[in-house]
């Protein structure tokens, strides 16, 4: 599945990174999470306003994190992704939203001043 997704995502951007996340492989496009591949499904970041409509489609499930449904993130079972057309349908939705999605905030290392304050508290 990762090879199939890689082939579809490659033309989208010159800035594609693959990271191991969520027990699978996540494709970051332009520094934004786009598609994740696991053994039995894919995770997609789509337009949050379209989550409910997506969940009505075959083999689409909500992403639940910490007991809460994550708007804009869905899982699609691999059984619904057998053909190139089926996979393209979902990957293209993720790529369309990726163009307007905001990147997640990058964690920054603590500044020396913050490190010193943390050390004093101990």
From TrEMBL:
InterPro entries associated with the record: TfoX_N
Residues covered by the TfoX N-terminal domain: 14-96
One Pfam family recorded for the sequence: TfoX_N
Domain of life of the source: Bacteria
Protein name: TfoX/Sxy family protein
Source organism: Chitinophaga varians
Taxonomic lineage from the root: Bacteria, Pseudomonadati, Bacteroidota, Chitinophagia, Chitinophagales
């Amino acid at each position: 599945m990762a090879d199939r997704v890689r082939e579809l995502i490659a033309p989208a951007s010159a800035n594609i990174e693959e990271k191991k996340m969520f027990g699978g492989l996540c494709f970051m496009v332009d520094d934004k999470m786009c598609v994740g591949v696991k053994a039995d499904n894919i995770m997609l970041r789509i337009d949050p306003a379209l989550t409910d409509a997506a969940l009505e489609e075959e083999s689409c499930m909500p992403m639940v994190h910490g007991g809460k449904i994550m708007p804009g993130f869905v899982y699609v079972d691999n059984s619904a992704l057998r053909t190139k057309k089926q996979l393209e349908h979902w990957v293209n939705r993720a790529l369309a939203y990726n163009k307007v999605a905001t990147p997640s905030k990058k964690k920054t290392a603590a500044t020396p001043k913050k490190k010193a304050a943390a050390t004093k508290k101990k």
